[in-house]
Amino acid sequence: MAHIVVYVSRFILVFLFAIYTYDCFAALRRSVSKERQKRLYHRQVFIMYTILIDLNLCIFVSTNNMMILLFMLAQMIFFGVCMLIYKKIYKHASYALINNMCMLMTISFSILARLDMGNAIKQFVIAAIGMVATCFIPALISKLKMWNRLKWIYAIVGIAGLLLVLVVGSRVYGAKININLGPIAIQPSEFIKIIFVFFVAAMLYVLPEDDLSKMKIDFKSSDFRKVLIATLVAGAHVLILVASKDLGGATIFLFTYIVMLYVATRKPLYLIISFLGMAVGGVLIYLLFNHVKVRVAAWLDPLGTIQDQGYQVSQSLFAIGTGGWFGSGLCQGMPDKIPVVSQDFIFAAISEELGAVFALCLIFVCISCIFMFFNIAMEIRDQFYKLIALGLGTLYGIQVFITLGGVTKFIPSTGVTLPLVSYGGSSLLSTMVLFAIIQGLYCRQFDDTQNQGDL
């Protein structure tokens, strides 16, 4: 009986998630009326709850664990309260952002419950705490005016936090990324990357938007000095991360800075120099760090090194290939064979048991989030807040790309989590903060547009 329920649910889940994903993009079209858009968002909420129930019932019939049903009920209450908070406190909040955040956490809680119920409960408790802690952030972002005046506070806090990890941090798979406070492990770089975006935006937002055709850089101008200072501080962040062997974090920081620098200055020469510097830096890191050579070897030939460094990537590829289009069914696969599956390689577990179509829909939901971030950035008139939205969108996008690229062997694995989906308290909280900030920027832009309309 359990096998029949799980078998049938595979197709129901794919069908429902495909509709949800379609609605993500359909609601973004400019031709869609407000009424039609609201109906799409309401349908997404219904689909999200249906998927939540389906996933948890599959786990229940496969395990006969009554805790799953209680956990399902707790999730339903949590998401209901989450949506109620945003829709009641922030009348002009983006329903798309709320729905996608809740949908990604729905998938996370369910797949974690399948892998390890203890981790799923921990992740859920952190999410509940995070929701209480972050529900005030949109108001702070939309109402306070002092965020562009704190650039040196951002820089000092960011560098000091990363130095603290370098000195007293604990090693996780060769990299110093965590600070242990008793039973709690905190990854400061997850939060510092958001502070870093605020620093770069505060440094560069007053720069003029030059013509794209101008390649010349005036070394005596005040704009160049600001760029130089911002680059030195950004370089300090990246070098500390490299020294801590957190190369995934260093890549995210560096790529985000390059995008923000180019958008702020509109000078292609900065972009060319930056990417040349990244290429040279990548070669040097490969030559200096042995664990990087190991990961590159596993990436180039995972099957040839399957008994050693290539084992994780090989198992990930086997899981993705075994799942096929519709998956083996929840609790019917063997994702436990993948090391660190609940963190870095959770996408492989999803692909194996829920199928390639479901996994592709998950990717497109993440892409729709990126589109929303950039769309909000384009609509914001204030250059400072425009750069923040752009930087946070880049942070999110590059993290998704690095995670999925490592799991699918598109790029070497760097140990980066999939935002809102992978297990990890710091990653979850920082992403919830990121979504809350974007929500605040959306509300701010809406208020500014309304005020200009009144004038």
User: Cα-atom Rg, whole angstroms?
Assistant: 22 Å
Strand order of the biggest β-sheet:
1-2-3
Strands, total number: 3
CA-to-CA gap between the ends?
65 Å
Sketch the major β-sheet: 3 strands, antiparallel
**Class by helix and strand content?**
mainly alpha
How confident is the prediction overall: mean pLDDT? Answer: 87
Uncertain ranges: 209-213
Q: Which percent range describes the beta-strand content? A: under 5%
Run of helices and strands: HHHHHHHEEEHHHHHHHHHH
Shape: globular
> What count of helical segments does DSSP give?
17
Tell me the helix content. over 70%
Task: Describe what is shown at a glance.
By secondary structure, the chain is mostly helical. It contains 17 helices and three strands.
Write the layout of secondary structure elements.
Elements: H1 2-26, H2 34-63, H3 66-89, H4 95-115, H5 117-134, H6 137-143, H7 151-168, E1 170-172, E2 175-181, E3 184-186, H8 189-204, H9 222-243, H10 247-265, H11 268-288, H12 290-300, H13 311-323, H14 346-354, H15 356-379, H16 383-407, H17 425-454
Features:
single chain; 455 residues; mainly alpha; three-stranded antiparallel beta sheet; 17 helices; globular
Question: What does this protein structure show overall?
Answer:
By secondary structure, this protein is mostly helical. The chain contains 17 helices and 3 strands. The chain has helices at 2-26, 34-63, 66-89, 95-115, 117-134, 137-143, 151-168, 189-204, 222-243, 247-265, 268-288, 290-300, 311-323, 346-354, 356-379, 383-407, 425-454, and strands spanning 170-172, 175-181, 184-186. The protein has a 3-stranded antiparallel β-sheet with strand order 1-2-3, covered by helices on one side. Helix 4 (95-115) runs antiparallel to helix 5 (117-134). It is globular, with a radius of gyration of 22 Å.
